[in-house]
Every structure is written in structure tokens, then in C-alpha cells.
Amino acid sequence: MSVLFVVIGLAAGLLAGLFGIGGGIVIVPALALGAGMGYKRALGTSLAALLLPVGILAAREYWATGNVDVRAALLIALGLTLGAGISAHYAQSVSQATLQRAFAVLMVVMAVRMWLKAA
């Protein structure tokens, strides 16, 4: 199982560097579907894994080429901190099935919007 977790992390890291994605789109479904974790445990594990290393090396590469708006990143980080704390508290009172279905709907909506807006 340890190898599976490293592979999930590697896949998420590769996709994070390319597309800015990882936790919700890769790690959570991989843990829930591939590793058999309960959905809430997969969410918590993903957040814990992302806590420190999230994007450090990738962000450095983008920053070195002038492709990071530091002010915007700090303000987004503030919003992420507040939003994640509030929603994590709320998620504990919602059933796993409801969370999983809501996440699936979100992914479909975002996929359709990206498809339609692609240049």
C-alpha cells in the first residue's frame, strides 16, 4: 500500500506542476477509489499531505520566470485558510455519500465549462 501512496503523490505532483491541480482531482479520488479509503478519510489525508509541501518547488520555478503574482497568492492563501477551516468543520456533519456526489457534480460542471471555454 505504501507504494500506491507514493504513486498517487507522484501523479498528483506531476499534474500539479503541469496544470495546478492535485489534491481534489487526483489524490482524493485515488484514495477513495483506488486505496479503498472512506471519502472523509481521503479528504483529511489529502489535506494533511498538502499541508507543507504543496507546490513549493513548482511555485519556485514559476516565480523564477516571473509567473507568480505574490500579492494575489497571499490573498488566495488567506481565503484558502479560512474557507478550508470552515468547510472542513461543516463536512464532518455531512454524509460521505453526499460529499462524494457533490464532488462528482463539481468535477462534471468544471469539465463542461472548461471544454466550452477552450480556445
Strand content: under 5%
What structural class do you assign from the helix and strand content?
mainly alpha
Specify the helix fraction band. Answer: over 70%
As a whole number of angstroms, the C-alpha radius of gyration is: 15 Å
Q: Can you walk me through this structure?
A:
With 119 residues, the protein is mostly helical. It is 80% helix and 0% strand. It has six helices and no strands. Helix 2 crosses helix 3. The longest helix is centred in the C-terminal third of the chain and has 22 residues, at 70-91. The N and C termini lie far apart (41 Å). The mean pLDDT is 87.
Note the topology.
Layout: H1 2-19, H2 23-34, H3 39-50, H4 56-64, H5 70-91, H6 96-117
Helix pairs in contact: 1-2, 2-3
Offer a few descriptive terms.
6 helices; 0% strand; mainly alpha
Task: Describe the structure in brief.
This protein is an all-alpha fold and 119 residues long.
